Amino acid sequence: MLTAVIVEDIKDALELLKRDIEDQHSDIEIVGTAQSVVEAAKILQKTQPDILFLDIMLGDGSGFDVLEIFPNLKSKVIFVTASDEFAIRAFKFAAIDYVLKPYSDSDLDQAIQKAKNHIQPTKERLSILKETLISPERKPQKISLHTLEKIIIVDLDDIIRCESDSNNTMFFLKDNKKVFVTKTLKYFSDMLKPFGFLRVHQSHLVNLQYISAFIKTDGGYLMLNNGENVPVSVRKKPEVISLLDKIHRH
After folding, report:
1. Which of 8, 98, 143, 171 would be a feasible disulfide site paired with 14, CB 3.0-4.6 Å?
2. What is the pTM of this model?
3. Whether the Cβ atoms of residue 34 and residue 59 lie closer than 8 Å to each other
């Protein structure tokens, strides 16, 4: 049997999750529930479960407060969050799995399977998650990129551009480094758009700080300050020109 503790501040949501786990996962025994950071701390002092279901927003603080009280927690953590676009973006930046309320049976099932097989996210990835959640309007410093072998943490300012490769994305970084990620370019362009990145073409996403000029000949392309050229699609041309105008005016 695996043991689990649920930390969720809304009573109905807590009861629902408890019932779903008991009904569908007979190999998991719920050994405690808590509705606040304080209650969670009391339970975890006595018992460290195999799996900790942890809501991000709690009445008296956040799920991170719980993790900070127990820096050596051995439990696998399954984060649970309400469907808020900023929260989802934060989890994507940190490349950390989460369960979105309201969740389906298969969402829960998948999260539990992953938790059984997964190693914990590193302290650095948790801190990316925390930073991005606490101040969603601020540009995150770092992003976690999930390659086939491992998760690499990269400074946002070191990303020169991204290029799509069918359903995958290649990141081109400073110092001629490249990172290959099995996610679409759209996934990253949606994530990075608020933070100075522009999709200039179906296959290209560019960090605005690396653009040195827009060349209007040959159908229009961007010259980057690392010497590379990136094509601009006809549809994106007006947006690119007006953005560069704005930047130059400042």
Report:
1. 8
2. 0.81
3. no
Q: Is the dihedral of CA 87, 92, 93, 97 positive or negative?
A: positive
Residues 150-168, mean pLDDT to the nearest whole number: 94
Q: Which residues contact 229 (CB under 8 A, 6 or more apart)?
A: 215, 221, 222, 223
Is position 110 within any domain?
Answer: yes
pLDDT tens-digit profile of 75-90? 999 999 887 888 889 9
CA distance 154 to 144: 6
Please, which residues have CB within 8 angstroms of residue 16's CB and are 6 or more apart in sequence? none
What is the number of other CB atoms lying within 10 angstroms of the CB of residue 23? 9
Residue 139 lies in a domain: no
Grouping H, G, I as helix, E, B as strand and the rest as coil, residue 238 is helix
Q: How far apart are the first and last CA of the chain?
A: 62
Same domain as 20, residue 127:
yes
Residue pair 202/221 in contact (Cβ under 8 Å)? The answer is: no
User: Residue 3 corresponds to which amino acid?
Assistant: T
Distance of CA 233 to the CA centre of its chain: 29
Amino acid 250: pLDDT: 66
* Pair 172, 160: CB distance under 8 Å: yes
